[in-house]
Write a structure and sequence with these properties.
The protein is mainly alpha-helical. It folds into three domains: about 60 residues, Winged helix-like DNA-binding domain superfamily/Winged helix DNA-binding domain (Arc Repressor Mutant, subunit A); about 40 residues; about 55 residues. Helix content is about 75%, strand content about 5%. It contains seven helices and three strands. The protein has a three-stranded antiparallel sheet. The longest helix has about 35 residues. It is elongated, with a radius of gyration of 43 Å. Required for proper homologous chromosome pairing and efficient cross-over and intragenic recombination during meiosis. This is Meiotic nuclear division protein 1 homolog. Belongs to the MND1 family.
Length: about 200
């Protein structure tokens, strides 16, 4: 025996709306949760179904004191459908106007671009120029190391690095002299350390 199919969300919405339409009365949520199962809507899903109807303006709700009441009349659905129809008609008119504007723009852009032998030849020539430009650009990249500007920049960088190296060498030598003068007992050790550092730097 096949299992009975449950109601879809839209079917649940229709059944809950029918409760409002049949009674044309005001309900608390707990009252709707009791009436829902009689229409095939389980009490656990009544709250979500009713809220979806409120979101779509098919059911109205209002708080009176500490209680929240829900109600709906057939006229509510009619008004909602009329409003939706008006909006759709407005969207259609706006879309048609936008389409006309695009067609006019397309027509203006096509002026001077009509298909012809001259246009095809011009496009072919443009394509050939673009390919040649790409090829030349790649060749220039291969010879970038020989660029006079790049070489000059490299020379300047080497000069700066050399000056910095000399400056630090002088600083180290001055520091070595100061340490030797102030710590005579460590002079031999300092000279040995200086030679090791100088040797290691020379290797690199």
């Amino acid at each position: 025996m096949s299992k009975k199919r449950g109601l879809s969300l839209e079917e649940k919405r229709e059944h809950m709306l029918q409760i409002f339409y049949d009674s044309q009365d005001f309900f608390l949520l707990k009252e709707l949760e009791k009436l829902g199962p009689k229409k095939g809507v389980i009490s656990q899903s009544v709250k979500d179904v009713v809220q979806s109807l409120v979101d779509d303006d098919l059911v109205l709700k209002d708080k009176i004191g500490t209680s929240v009441y829900f109600w709906s009349l057939p006229s509510c659905a009619g008004n909602q459908l009329r409003n939706a129809s008006i909006k759709l008609e407005s969207d259609i008119l706006s879309g048609k106007k936008h389409l006309e504007e695009l067609n006019e723009l397309r027509a203006s852009l096509m002026l001077g671009r009509e298909e012809s032998n001259e246009r095809e030849q011009a496009l072919e020539k443009l394509k050939a120029i673009e390919l040649e430009y790409k090829k030349l650009k790649e060749e220039v990249t291969l010879y970038a190391d020989n660029d006079p500007v790049a070489l000059e920049t490299m020379k300047n960088a080497i000069h700066v690095a050399k000056s910095a190296a000399n400056r630090w060498t002088d600083n180290i030598f001055t520091l070595q002299q100061w340490c030797s003068s102030n710590f005579p007992e460590a002079k031999e050790q300092l000279e040995h350390t200086y030679k090791e550092v100088k040797y290691k730097l020379g290797r690199h």
